[in-house]
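Quick one:
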Amino acid sequence: MSKPIALAIDFKKFTFSVLETGLFLKKNLYPESKIILFHVIESFLTPPHYLIPYFKKEENKLKTELLKLSQKFKNENIPVEIEVIFGNFWEALKGFIEKLDPYLLLIGYQPYKFKIPTAEKMLERLKGNFLVVKDIPLKEIKKVLCCIDFSESSQPCLKLASFISKKLKAELKVLNVMAEIKIKEKSLKDRLLEEEKVKRKEMWGNLINSLAKDEKIENLNLQIEYGDRVKEIIKSIKNFSPDLLVIGKTGKTLKLGLGSVTKELLKVLPIPILIVENV
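Output:
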């Protein structure tokens, strides 16, 4: 049985993008997956008896709003489930996601200067694969950029990017960025870079071979760049113009939370970002 696609609805700026992207995923990538719209409302304590009617009224109001939003799917004859979750925000949300076990969790992301967005906290605290959208919903995928660093997340990243590109006949570009080597002597620096490139090409071959055990991999090449990781990825996006960026949730050193490169890209990129933890 296919895992569901969960759409986090906060009734704010990017709700439209979340809904449009969810519709695209259902129609084009995951036709067997169930669509679930959900909203979490904070409730610190078990309400006293006299407040229960108020909470019930609030729950019915939110369900009505979710039903209105679900009409976008019903107009396409796509069944939708809705959930309103009460409780301590993080405990309730974590329990809901663990029980649901969605294939993808779709969220909107609004960056702020002086506070951490709730979406970013969700990425740090919850396990799973996230598709993050801003103003631009995902309505077509003709080009996919997959960034790998040969950490544990590289295989699921490449596997998911390969699946999407094959399914939609999209062009797939795979990028790896070597961090800057802070050595002044040019000859030594060049030699170290060449040695590192050889190592990475070997790791690339091993990665492709590991994927080939499960599926057929064709015409997939690795582009290796050198420099600041965030800047080089942004440069590649400007040159390649992908519809979707696929990247790991953490890097080589961080095992939990959200990696610094992914976190920085979330703040500055306008395109949808698929943040992969597992497949």
